[in-house]
Structures are given as structure tokens and as C-alpha cells.
Design a protein that fits this description.
The chain is of the alpha/beta class and 406 residues long. 51% of the residues lie in helices and 11% in strands. The N and C termini lie far apart (56 Å).
């Protein structure tokens, strides 16, 4: 422990966090306070079709700003998408960014900001390559899902289709949003499946950041509180899409879990989901959610006290339980939650058991492997993947039995 305590740790967040039901009405005021005139709105066609783009344009124009829109974002945004957005930002004479949508829109906006300031292509700024030496232009992040927490993280995740991998950009306050404007009202129309997947992503951030090798008191605190909110409100938000109380608390859970990252990596679940997401274009939240319980099952022997504390945060009865049994309860809870939320199996997400060796190799090479609380290599990743596929088969059998009974 003395060696661990001697490791220099720090926490820094430059993001102003603004939140309330109806907070979108303050967007113009927040933008004007940044002394900007021509923001690029970064979003996707789903947001446009849902009418949410107008919710952004109105307050910006009312504040005297002249916004332009880049609405080409897709799930798992790639290098070409980000670079094209940066060229559009420059050709339109923009001086700031507003991202509205899920993590893909916010990560795209961060990437656009990096390229706009530093030049070149976003691929140059993969973590460990060219440094991000200057802060991106003013960025207001407006999440419409409660999952990635990208509105407050110091990271962006970008896809390289040539290598079939996702890579991280950031790990520095220079990439952070200047303002995170969180309005839970914007998430009430999310489909139940998106609510489930993004919610599981938030829970995974909290669990992994609480157990990662780089945890510290601040990240511990916000991670545990995020877990408490997920345990109390995720099933409710999934079951009652218009329950504003549930939406509010899940929005806060996503924000808190995002803050739990700090400048560090998470662990095996995200190493697996990010690398696998480069192989098949699967929804990140659902993929991460399907992997969380098998990873916890593998990891809890490395940090049993911490997994026992997770069980308490999940409101499980740990009285008169040994540390080991309490740790096991947290694993069992997440397996059950995965099924309660109808998270798709890996097969349903487009993966096959024959790909396990490839997926394991890619996971081992992912930078987030080093943060995992238990030593893990390609061979052990194969074990975890096999367990995840097995859990998915159990899901299929249970669904068939339920269908036969009806």
C-alpha cells in the first residue's frame, strides 16, 4: 500500500456543469457568456428528425448568435467524419461548438475541436501519439442520452475503419467541453433499448472507475454515487420512459460516472467493448452492458473489498456476509440486471464464438487493459468472452421458454 500511496495522482475538470429539467432554455445564455458568435452545431439525423435541433437553434439565435449545423454524425464516428467536420468548421468561419446527442455527437465535436486547433487528422491524436497542447474551441455539450458521460470526460472515442479498432483521444483537460448542459427532459423519448444500453454504459463507467488501478478518493466518491443512482433508477427509466424523476437521476448518474474517469483508463470491459466495436458496428452501450457482468466475475478476486463495497452501493443486503460473498453478490446483481433490461446477447449484436481469439487479441492491445484490477491477457480475455457468449445463450433459452409459455 505504501508504494501505491506514493504514486502521484491528480484530478482536474475545466467543465462547467449546468443541469435542470428544462435547462436547454439556458443554452443561449451559456453560449453568450463564452463570447462566441458562430457555433457549429454537431449532431445526427435522429436529433434532427426528433425536432431537437430546433430546441438548440432557438435559444442560440435569441441570444444573437449565428449557428451553422453539421448533422452527419453516425454511431461510432470515424476518422473521415471528424476530419470532414473540422474542414466544415473552418470553411464556415466558426468560433465554437455545440454538440447535441449521445456520446457519438459529443465525441465528434471534441475531435473537430482538436483538429481545428492543431491541424492534420484526428488519427494523429490517438492517445500516445501527437500531444493535444492547446484547449479546443469553446464547446457546449448537450447530452440526449444518459450513458457515456462524454459531456464531462476528458476523452473522445473515434473509430479507425482501416484497422477495425476504436481509439481514445484525450486524457487531458484540453479536450474537455467548456460547458455541460444537462436537461433530462431531452431523454424522455428515448427508446427503451437505448435507455437500457446507455444506462448500462454509465454503470460500467462507475464500476470500472471505482475498481481501476488509478482510483483515488474523488473518483471513488462520484463512482459510488453513480452506482446508487443506477441501482435505484435505471430499471424505472427503462420501464417508464416519461418518468422525469428517473430520467433526472440517470442523467446525473451518467455525469457522475463520467467524472469518475479523470485522466485515466477504465478496465477490461471497456477494453473489450471499444476494441470489439471496431470489428462490428454494434451499439456501444449494449455491447458494454453485455460484457460488464462477466468482467466483474473475472475481476472480483483482485479487489474483493471494493466489489463488496459495490454491493452496498447497489443496495444489496451484505449484513453478516463475508467480503467474498458480498463481492459475489455484486456480480450476481449485474448478471440479473443485464437480463432485466433485455440487453442483447453478443450473437444478437453480430458477434460469433469463432471470433473470440481475434476479439481477445484486440482487447489485450487496448490501452484500457492496463487499468484493470486483475491481471488480464489474451488468454484470459478469451475466457471472459466465452463466459459472455454463454450468458447470452442462457438469455436465448429463457426467452424461448417464456415465449412457449405465452
Amino acid at each position: 500500500m505504501a508504494v501505491l500511496d506514493s504514486v502521484l495522482k491528480a484530478y482536474q475538470s475545466p467543465t462547467r456543469m449546468v443541469h435542470a429539467i428544462g435547462a436547454i432554455s439556458a443554452l443561449g445564455q451559456e453560449a453568450a457568456a463564452l463570447n462566441v458568435k458562430r457555433p457549429l452545431i454537431v449532431t445526427d439525423q435522429g436529433i434532427v428528425k426528433a425536432g431537437l435541433l430546433e430546441e438548440v437553434l432557438k435559444p442560440l439565435r435569441a441570444a444573437g448568435l449565428d449557428p451553422v449545423t453539421y448533422d452527419q454524425v453516425r454511431a461510432n464516428p470515424g476518422i473521415a467524419l471528424v476530419d470532414a467536420g473540422a474542414r466544415y468548421y473552418q470553411s464556415e468561419g466558426c468560433d465554437s461548438l455545440v454538440a447535441i446527442g449521445g456520446g457519438s455527437s459529443i465525441d465528434t465535436a471534441k475531435g473537430i475541436g482538436v483538429v481545428a486547433v492543431h491541424g492534420g487528422s484526428i488519427g494523429q491524436y490517438e492517445w500516445g501519439k501527437d500531444p493535444i497542447h492547446s484547449r479546443i474551441p469553446p464547446l457546449i455539450a448537450v447530452p440526449t442520452t444518459a450513458g457515456t458521460g462524454s459531456e464531462v470526460t476528458l476523452w473522445a472515442v473515434i473509430t479507425d475503419p482501416d484497422r477495425k479498432v476504436k481509439f481514445n483521444v484525450g486524457g487531458t483537460p484540453n479536450i474537455a467541453a467548456w460547458v455541460a448542459l444537462i436537461d433530462p427532459q431531452l431523454s424522455v423519448n428515448l427508446p427503451a433499448g437505448v435507455t437500457a444500453g446507455t444506462g448500462m454504459d454509465a454503470l460500467t463507467h462507475a464500476v470500472e472507475c471505482y475498481t481501476m488501478a488509478y482510483h483515488q478518493p474523488f473518483t471513488d466518491a462520484v463512482a459510488l454515487h453513480a452506482m446508487e443512482y443506477c441501482a435505484r433508477w435505471l430499471r424505472v427509466a427503462y420501464s417508464q420512459g416519461h418518468n422525469l424523476e428517473a430520467r433526472y437521476h440517470m442523467s446525473m448518474a451518467a455525469m457522475l460516472a463520467g467524472l469518475a474517469y479523470g485522466t485515466d483508463s477504465a478496465g477490461a470491459a471497456h477494453a473489450m467493448s471499444q476494441s470489439a466495436g471496431g470489428v462490428h458496428d454494434a451499439p456501444h452501450g449494449a455491447l458494454t452492458g453485455r460484457l460488464l457482468a462477466p468482467v466483474m466475475e473475472y475481476n472480483y478476486s483482485g479487489e474483493p473489498e471494493r466489489f463488496a463495497r459495490i454491493a452496498q452501493a447497489l443496495n444489496l443486503d451484505t449484513a453478516n456476509k463475508t467480503i467474498w460473498k458480498a463481492a459475489e453478490l455484486s456480480v450476481e446483481y449485474v448478471y440479473q440486471l443485464t437480463e432485466d433490461l433485455d440487453i442483447p446477447s453478443l450473437n444478437e449484436l453480430g458477434f460469433s464464438e469463432e471470433e473470440i481469439p481475434l476479439l481477445a487479441q484486440k482487447a489485450e492491445a487496448d490501452s484500457q487493459t492496463i487499468g484493470n484490477p486483475r491481471d488480464v491477457d489474451a488468454r484470459n480475455y478469451e475466457r471472459i468472452y466465452a463466459r459472455a457468449f454463454e450468458a447470452g445463450r442462457h438469455r436465448k433459452v429463457a426467452r424461448q421458454l417464456a415465449h412457449a409459455g405465452s
